[in-house]
Amino acid sequence: MSQTINLALIIGSLRKASINRVFAEYITSQLPEHVKIEEVAIADLPLYNQDYDNQTIESYDQVRKQIKQADAVLIVTPEHNRTLPAALKNVIDIASRPHGESAWANKKVALVTASPGSYGARDSGLDVRKVMQSLASQVMIAPEIYLSRATESLDDGQVSSERTQKYLNKFANELVDFIGE
Ligand SMILES: Cc1cc2nc3c(=O)[nH]c(=O)nc-3n(C[C@H](O)[C@H](O)[C@H](O)COP(=O)(O)O)c2cc1C
User: Fold this and answer.
1) Ranges for the NADPH-dependent FMN reductase-like domain (predicted)?
2) Is 36's C-beta closer than 6 angstroms to any atom of ligand 1?
3) Relative to the CA of 156, which of 94, 105, 119, 165 has its CA 20 to 30 Å away?
């Protein structure tokens, strides 16, 4: 039996009907049983403030612990105004501090972006890559997944397009290989 892999999942959208959540759920449903998924809840995190570094903020402790303990983090996110959503940047910042205690150093990070638009939230993905690089994370280089015209792959809150399913299945397999490397 394979050893358990702990995968933390961050969904960059706070929206109930988020298309990124649908893709995240599809991808995680394709992972083998030994990959345990734990979502990092980002919606109610107070906006990061360096003054808090000397205080105990339970929600901060919780997300820092989740990310530190995870073997890898999967980020599935939309793009807001050509970059990553503020709530995603907030959790990245929270887990990068206090100075010297970053949860991101050497952390394996995989990334998927999705948008109804033609560019698949690619700028958001590229910006997340840039941020994670500055934090010395090990970002999964390939395949790069920017799901464009993403609503066309969905029906009734599910990934209905066989082509997209195949593509995401391949990504799920490569994700497991990446985490196991
Ligand atoms: C504040 C805001 C800014 C947006 N900016 C972009 C953008 O720069 N590029 C893009 O492709 N879509 C943009 N969108 C549209 C989102 O891609 C779309 O709302 C998508 O459904 C968001 O993903 P979600 O369903 O997972 O929340 C923006 C949406 C909002 C609310």
Assistant:
1) 6-150
2) no
3) 119
Give pLDDT tens digits for 113-131: 999 999 999 999 999 999 9
Q: How far is CA 113 from CA 82, 137, 142, 153, in A?
A: 12, 18, 13, 14
The total of structural domains in the chain comes to: 1
Look at residue 181 in the predicted model and tell me its pLDDT. 83
Calculate the CA 19 to chain-centre distance.
14
Range of the domain at 19: 5-180
Q: Is 113 in the pocket of ligand 1 (CB under 6 A)?
A: no
Pocket perturbation via mutation, ligand 1, pick of 27, 42, 115 by most ligand atoms within 8 A of CB: 115
Closest protein CA for atom 4 of ligand 1: 80
Cβ neighbour number for residue 45 with a 10 Å cutoff: 18
